[in-house]
Amino acid sequence: MDQDPPDSTENTETYLRLLTQHDRWLAAYAFSLVASAADAQDILQEVKVTMWKQFAKFEQGTNFRAWARRIATNQILNYRRSEKRRPSSALDVEFIEAVAAEIDRRADTLDHKADALKICLRKLPEAHRKIVVWRYYEDCGVEEIAAKSERTVEAVYRLLSRIRGVLNDCVSRQLAHPHTT
Amino acid sequence: MKNSAANEDRIQRAIEGLLSEEEMDAFKRDVIADADLRAAYAEQMWLHSSLRAERETLPGLFEDAPAAEEKIVRRWPVAAWAAAIAAGVTLLATIFLSGKGTLFHRPVATLVQAENCKWAGSDLPTAVNSKLGAGRLVLVEGIATLKFTNGATVTMEAPTTLEILTAMHCRLIEGTLTAEVPEPAHGFTVDTPDIKVVDLGTKFGVTAAATGNSQVRVFQGEVEIGGMKDGKTKRITEGKGLHVGSGNTTLGQEPTHGQLVQESGGWTAIPTSFGHGKDGYARRGDDGSHFGTQPLLIVKHTDIAAGRKNERRAIVTFDVSQVATATVAEAQIVLDPAPSGFGFSTLVPDSRFAVYGVTDEALDAWDEREMSWASLPGCNDDGPNPNQVRKLAEFWIPRGGSGGPITVRGDAIADFLHSDTNGLVTFLVVRETGETDPSGLAHGFASKEHPTARPPTLRLK
Asked: Which residue from A75, A15, A89 is spatially nearest to A46, judged by alpha carbons?
């Protein structure tokens, strides 16, 4: 460990409270910007370790999310550099920052959206659920799903696009009329 | 939303990684320049990443979990725990756990398989497919497999008591487990009463006694051992093991006085502890060592070269001088399985054993204190010697144990007794089936020196 973590109980509680509060946003952020789910999970862990180590430097009362975002962005860019074995381009950095800002703008509704998403997932027909489980729970790529379901890659891609479209529309409807189930 | 179908398609392809590098770069430039495209991309990306981030909850969600439960299961990601542990902040966990009781109910593992299982005093459900949160599992018999949400698979071998703390951390209070840990779960930690085993990408096994006496064996990859008395950590690599012993094994204990027991139904039970009875085993790799006075009879067979030296055979002799062997109508041998502490049951399939009668009566005179691999009665190095022994019976022990004493039956046992002339009958016990890994289980049976279990017993009438 480079540096001892802050050890007062109060600090610990503050850190945990902030982390819990922003956890969904942080996960969405990392998973949005990293292609591989397993890598995103690793990066997320690294980010949380780094945040904890550096928490003493965080000025309480300032924007936790902005602070966390800076740490996460650094980790993601570091990862991209090592992944591609080429220096991350200015385009990459700009793209990540643009998308990050866009995700930030939506951060306040993320918790509601996540709840809505659960309701919408339950409404999926069995055949679509299977695809969702393969794609997300088992982390299969489009090609693997194509092999499993005896469809073409293109057909699986279209099906996945449609499922995500249906879910997105459903989530929007849920947010507009939260009591219709 | 003012996005064209073509742009929707680009977004979906970008998410699935189906764009070429040039197409992706063009897409990135457009996202930066076009606010509508950026908004649509962020929306789709949010959905995609939420599904990825929440992946563990998907199957449960589809299983029609009642809506009320949903409220309690406030997501606290595995990753945060791993981070907390990685940062060495156990304090963090303590505070958080005591502060939020509901966390205990969040499932972190599923009981995916249970073979021949009997459970006792567990505060977690023990039906197959049960979702398990933090809590304790007490496995009395059998083999049970748990799959943690992060992908780690833990197989418990009875008798074992395991406490699940989080998806990344459990405590082996007593017994044996093997763990297979895929990449997302690296850092998975098993505490025993005297050490802490941290996975670094691996398949490993741990055995622990409640009083502290832990063994670790790494089948693949690497683990880190911490929590030792000297405060040091140690890395163990593939094929290596470590034994941290603070407990005692019961060696050299006074033999209990055996008695010949008249049972109901006309049966007479003769334990090896009766009269001139004796029992012991030998291991190929220990030529010269004597295992005649151990509390266990250990039996193992392997066809894997690396395990050759661990071949073990047991020998038991009963004093039948007080019974009329010529008129025995029925005979049985009862063996009481006891954990050997060597190897992992998971790595041996159902096992077949054979019992041979030693026909060369000169060999009945073997001495518990002298017997070694070379002098094991009725055997040469390769196996039972047909000039000195006769196969009488076979028995099976299922993977994960049989639960309770094993009774070996067969007319051949009574026939063998008929030919006794010197008041002693000797049986050789060998395992005939092998294992899938050289760290497979060595089967143990109580000997007459065992402090609690029943010694090998010959029952006849």
From this structure: A75
Residue with tokens 């180590």: A53
A27 close to B (CB below 8 A) = yes
Q: How far is CA A2 from the centre of its chain?
A: 27
Q: Using one digit for the tens of pLDDT, what is the confidence trace for B390-439? A: 999 999 888 776 567 888 988 899 999 998 888 899 999 999 988 777 67
Q: What is the ipTM of this complex?
A: 0.79
The Cα B282–Cα B299 span in angstroms is: 9
Q: How many residues does chain B have?
A: 461
Distances (CA, A) of B27 to B19, B60, B165: 9, 36, 45
Distance from CA of B83 to the nearest CA of A (A): 5
Query: Coil, strand or helix: which one is A46?
Result: helix
What is residue B89's predicted lDDT score, i.e. its pLDDT?
A: 37
Work out the number of other CB atoms within 10 angstroms of the CB of residue A177. 9
Report the alpha-carbon angle B57-B63-B68, nearest 5: 75
Q: Tell me if B16 sits within 8 A of A143, measured CB to CB.
A: no
Answer whether A160 sits within 8 Å of B70, measured CB to CB: no
Tally the C-alpha atoms within 13 A of residue B14's C-alpha that lie toward its C-beta. Answer: 27
